[in-house]
């Protein structure tokens, strides 16, 4: 048996018991691109069929032991070789009975000896062309199947991303609990279900006591630790069917289906007692944070809607705070205690005064930032204004996509405006320089988070913005500064601002760096997802700019 070479050639099998006939066929057919294999018997030919893929077989009819007809019939009986075309090469009679037997055995054509080289070449070329077309079709089929698999994989990836985005749209990004918008839907559904089947439904509204003091004392990062850990404590004390929500800020809500007021009180007391005795810690700082809880239930208080049920629990929560905090209070339409009844208007007056004072402070805060903005605008001109408008625009889009309250979005925007204003005024000469940074200037940039954060300490009402200004240079993988925070330990506002500010900077005209297209900037964001930026926020941001038509996917 002759061994073929290993190059990519088309295989043709020549079968004849006489070597001189094989040599004659080889001489006629030999050319580049063909691999001519030779066999001296039918048995030898059948053995070679197991090892090679042949485009054509030229088979002699008259051979000892096993003639060509028998060899062809055996080939046709095998599923893997029955498709190979066979041309009989014979010197026997051209009578129809012999020709018919050849076709019955599986031949596609007959050549009679002596062979005409031109006819042989012509017939062989036809089958070579058919073989090449077959291979092309097989390759196209393979590619099509691969494309289908890739599309199916892509579909699964898209479905998974959509599931994640859907989950993000109903969950609070920090605590993982359901958000306020989803709370409205779920509470309505649970109230309707309780009314239809005449079952009970209780509501717990909870507020972490003196939480602002925790933020002021230990910082917002530690405050985020407390919020996340408290959320875990809540979930550990609930059944799997009990939905928990972040109501807003440091307030949380729980619905307890099929649970009356006493069962709700027991659940609330377990949580209150645990918080009273177990401190929160981040490995460095540690403190006790108690919780006040207001209770209301459908059968006990007969609310007319889900909103009424929540409102009753809210009223009870305010009484718990007014009476000293770290306690559980059930909703009462009229207080049985005359002293407590006199205290309620006072509590309401204090609440009203706090709301009015907050409004005054908000106006003062707005005026202060406006003054800083005007100073920066005079220094930075239209470039500063354009950059700031785009940053605020994207922060607003991100906030709405994450279902953040307008007050939180405005806090993020104030922090961004303060950062950009400070940068324009103080670091203008550095950020506009096209030369290599000196060690002193580099130190000023790396110290950048501290300077605007220290500026906010002049006014205590900027405490919410301070964490964004201080931590927007932290990286998601912990490689940033000033404190090396990572992941969710970085305040959400700082993560959003870092992402948006980087994108706007990359896609803006800068004297010291080339402006990138939106597509190039998007690639940069993807490259740094999980390293510098929060990967979930990157995914959400890219979807936003795609939905707005800025990015072609």
Low-confidence stretches: 1-6, 334-355
Instruction: Output the radius of gyration.
Output: 40 Å
- Helical amount among residues, as a percent range? 55-70%
Portion of residues in beta strands equals 5-15%
Number of structural units classed as domains: 3
Total of DSSP H or I helical runs spanning 4+ residues: 20
Secondary-structure-derived class = alpha/beta
What is the global morphology?
elongated
Distance between the termini: 57 Å
Quaternary state reads: single chain
Main sheet: strands, sense, barrel: 5 strands, parallel
Total strand segments: 12
CATH topology of the largest domain: Hypothetical protein af1432
- What do we call the CATH homologous superfamily of the largest domain? Hypothetical protein af1432
CATH architecture of the largest domain: Orthogonal Bundle
Mean pLDDT: 80
Strands across the major sheet, in which order? Answer: 2-1-3-4-5
CATH class of the largest domain: Mainly Alpha
């Amino acid at each position: 048996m002759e061994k073929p070479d290993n190059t990519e050639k088309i295989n043709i099998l020549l079968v004849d018991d006489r070597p001189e006939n094989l040599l004659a066929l080889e001489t006629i057919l030999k050319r580049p691109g063909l691999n001519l294999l030779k066999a001296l018997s039918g048995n030898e030919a059948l053995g070679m069929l197991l090892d090679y893929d042949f485009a054509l077989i030229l088979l002699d009819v008259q051979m000892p032991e096993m003639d060509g007809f028998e060899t062809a019939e055996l080939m046709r009986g095998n599923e893997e070789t029955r498709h190979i075309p066979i041309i009989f090469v014979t010197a026997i009679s051209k009578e129809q009975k012999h020709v018919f037997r050849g076709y019955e055995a599986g031949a596609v054509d007959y050549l009679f000896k002596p062979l005409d080289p031109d006819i042989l070449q012509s017939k062989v070329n036809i089958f070579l062309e058919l073989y090449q077309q077959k291979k092309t079709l097989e390759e196209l089929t393979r590619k099509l199947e691969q494309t289908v698999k890739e599309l199916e994989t892509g579909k699964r990836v898209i479905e998974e991303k959509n599931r994640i985005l859907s989950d993000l749209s109903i969950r609070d990004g920090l605590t993982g609990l359901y958000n306020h918008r989803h709370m409205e839907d779920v509470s309505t559904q649970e109230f309707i279900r309780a009314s239809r089947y005449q079952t009970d439904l209780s509501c717990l509204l909870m507020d972490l006591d003196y939480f602002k003091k925790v933020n002021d004392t230990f910082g917002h990062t530690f405050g985020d630790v407390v919020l996340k850990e408290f959320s875990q404590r809540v979930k550990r004390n609930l059944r799997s069917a009990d939905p928990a929500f972040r109501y807003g800020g440091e307030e949380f809500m729980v619905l307890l289906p099929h649970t009356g007021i006493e069962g709700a009180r027991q659940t609330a007391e377990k949580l209150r007692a645990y918080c009273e005795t177990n401190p929160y810690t981040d490995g460095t700082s540690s403190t006790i944070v108690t919780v006040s809880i207001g209770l209301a239930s459908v059968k006990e208080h007969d609310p007319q809607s889900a909103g009424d049920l929540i409102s009753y629990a809210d009223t009870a929560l305010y009484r718990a705070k007014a009476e000293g905090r770290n306690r559980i209070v059930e909703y009462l339409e009229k207080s049985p205690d005359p002293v407590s009844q006199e205290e309620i208007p006072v509590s309401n007056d204090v609440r009203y005064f706090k709301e009015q004072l907050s409004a005054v402070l908000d106006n003062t805060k707005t005026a202060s930032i406006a003054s800083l903005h005007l100073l920066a605008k005079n220094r930075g001109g239209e470039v500063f204004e354009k950059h700031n408008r785009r940053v605020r625009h994207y922060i607003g889009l991100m906030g709405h996509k994450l279902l953040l309250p307008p007050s939180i979005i405005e806090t993020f925007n104030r922090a961004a405006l303060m950062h950009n204003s400070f940068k324009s005024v103080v670091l203008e000469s550095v950020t506009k320089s096209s030369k290599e940074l000196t060690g002193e200037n580099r130190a000023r940039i790396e110290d950048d988070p501290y300077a605007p954060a220290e500026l906010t300490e002049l006014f205590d009402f900027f405490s919410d913005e301070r964490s964004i200004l201080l931590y927007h240079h932290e990286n998601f993988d912990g490689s940033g500064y000033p404190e090396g925070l990572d992941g969710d330990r970085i305040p959400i506002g700082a993560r959003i601002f870092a992402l948006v500010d980087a994108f706007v900077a990359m896609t803006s005209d800068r004297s010291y760096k080339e402006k990138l297209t939106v597509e190039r900037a998007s690639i940069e964001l993807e490259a740094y997802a999980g390293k510098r930026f929060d990967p979930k926020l990157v995914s959400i941001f890219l979807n936003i700019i795609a939905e707005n038509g800025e990015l072609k996917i």
